Amino acid sequence: MPFLTAAVLAAFVAYAGAWYFEIVEGNFALLLFLATVVTGLYWLAERFYFLPRRRRAATALEARTAERNADLSARGIASDEPQLAEAKQKVLAQPWWLDWTAGLFPVILAVFVLRSFLFEPFKIPSGSMIPTLLVGDLILVNKFTYGLRLPVLNTKLTEGTPPKRGDVMVFRYPPKPSLDYIKRVVGLPGDEVAYLNKRLTINGVPVPENRLPDFFDRDAMRYFKQFQEQLGDHTHALLNDDERPAFVPGVEDFPFKQNCRYSVEGVVCKVPRGMYFMMGDNRDNSLDSRYWGFVPDQNIVGKAILIWMNFGDFKRIGWFQ
């Protein structure tokens, strides 16, 4: 068993290393699931086989020592009780290969359940959601609002509450589902979404928009026009870049692309059933549904609700819309 355990642990380390150096495309949900299963099997083996066997060995050692001490006492020789306590401790001690598997199972199981069904942390890697979310923000994603899903398979177990316009949602990037993206829900199933000349219209009704003071982007070292937008129950800020044209360049082929009409003014899309149209708040610096299409319901990961840390600016910690 020590050799088998060493091989299993080495395989996990090798996979993590290959993922870190981008030799393979990692899947943390799958890795965590496998770690939970493997350590769970070791925990069961420890509880029902290895620990009882060590206890039987300790009991046998105690009986042999008692018999020996009785014999020594009959001869007038002092017993060796301190040596017995130390020997029992060694017999009952958990070997390293169980300590690193069965011993970690409760912690890994707790992380697996928390991450799969309750909340999952993410780090914002890009500026597509500025000014709502900045690069480096550590956010918390609610995994049950939109319905509980099986980990790895992402199969829905409960219906939950359907996504609403204005929700900030994490989802699996349709062209490459191994990647997680974060954008704002703009179009629901059946909606006609128009983004023409940098103005958003849903089902023929312009989305309310008010001008705010210009936003200074520290990374770009320049100011951008900032507006306040009302999407459903959500009021949020967005950015526009006057130097970027209104048309959408480099559009990819995607399912139901025929539902969209592109022009020099922008794009108009009819959202298919069971899908969503997503956009970033940094409207001219966001690779979103305008470029790669609609997000299917099965790609949903959860609803982003909270910035729980930003090591560069503690004031950013809190809820957001």
Short structural description:
This protein is α+β, with helices and mostly antiparallel strands. Helices cover 31% and strands 27% of the residues.
What is the chain-wise order of helices and strands? HHHHHEEEEEEEEEEEEEHEEE
Please identify the structural class as seen in this structure. alpha+beta
Summarize model confidence as the mean pLDDT: 91
Q: What oligomeric state do these chains adopt? A: single chain
Terminal residue distance: 52 Å
Helix content: 25-40%
CATH class of the largest domain: Mainly Beta
Q: Identify the CATH architecture of the largest domain.
A: Ribbon
CATH fold label of the largest domain? Umud Fragment, subunit A
CATH superfamily of the largest domain: Umud Fragment, subunit A
**Gyration radius over CA:** 29 Å
Q: What is the count of DSSP helices, taking H or I runs of 4+ residues? A: 6
GO molecular function: serine-type endopeptidase activity; signal peptidase activity
Family: Belongs to the peptidase S26 family.
GO biological process, one term: signal peptide processing
InterPro entries: LexA/Signal_pep-like_sf, Pept_S26A_signal_pept_1, Pept_S26A_signal_pept_1_CS, Pept_S26A_signal_pept_1_Lys-AS, Pept_S26A_signal_pept_1_Ser-AS, Peptidase_S26
